[in-house]
Amino acid sequence: MRKSLKYFANAAATVALCATLGLAGPAGPAAADTPGIPSVGHDWASAGPYTPNVSIGLVHTLYYPRQLGARGEKHPAVIWGNGTGVLPGAYTSLLRHYASHGFIVLAANTPASNFAITMRSGIDLIADKAASPSSVFYGKVDLEHIGAVGHSQGGSAAINASIDDRVDTAVAIQPGPLNDVDLIDEPVLYLAGQADAIVWPAIVRAMYEDADHVPAEYLELRGATHFGTAINGGDMRGPSTAWLRYWLLDDPNARTEFFGASCGYCTDTQQFSDFDRNDLALQIPG
């Protein structure tokens, strides 16, 4: 389930060799698993092609496409962590947005998510539902591709959740400091707000710099505050969606936003006040 870092180290050389020999490049990690999830071009911040459903349970709130498996596709899972003192309803538009792009979101119903215990149990929940013939999720979940995402304390929790071997990537949105990046080996996107007075950009950048053993990128959203992420994700909605679509769906348009010499986000100084990617991320071809 977890992508090997050897894949990233050899990716650029493999693509170059294929081009020299006139062969197609390597298939993306999830290309064969999600044949029916449609492209959205580069419109990451707009709603995707699916109508979201919401199911509120005791431990998790589920956000998922109403048309599960309509094209024969399986849907990747995303476990979500809330900021301090709030429940998934504080991010309802953002989580519905992820569902509209084809993801099944397991949002932990806890205002204290930092240790990611409830987040990780969301994987068990969706695995059980995917195996139950009486469930709408039966046979429609891509358990080989799972992301961890969260905001503030939940952003720290997304990193902590990634110690789980079943998690393939993390998006840490303005994450708090109580985590240990050295314990994970998944690619991580760090999102900071230029005007964030709660979790300063320098704090998020320091976490990014500590993640030199995994492919990692740092995006600082121009003018973004800490609380602008609530409800609809604010300026964090588009980049976080694109990252998930690349790592969990192998979306080639999403790849070009983050990777390659002239990637879309590299040159977007209007949206981002700072952008950086480490050596392992630089080895991934655009």
TrEMBL record:
MF terms (GO), sorted A to Z: hydrolase activity
Protein origin, superkingdom: Bacteria
Record's signal peptide: 1-32
Pfam families for this protein: PETase
UniProt keyword list: Hydrolase, Signal
Residue ranges occupied by any PET hydrolase/cutinase-like domain in the UniProt entry: 91-258
Keyword Disulfide bond set for record: no
Name under which the protein is recorded: Putative hydrolase
Species annotation: Rhodococcus erythropolis (strain PR4 / NBRC 100887)
Source lineage: Bacteria, Bacillati, Actinomycetota, Actinomycetes, Mycobacteriales
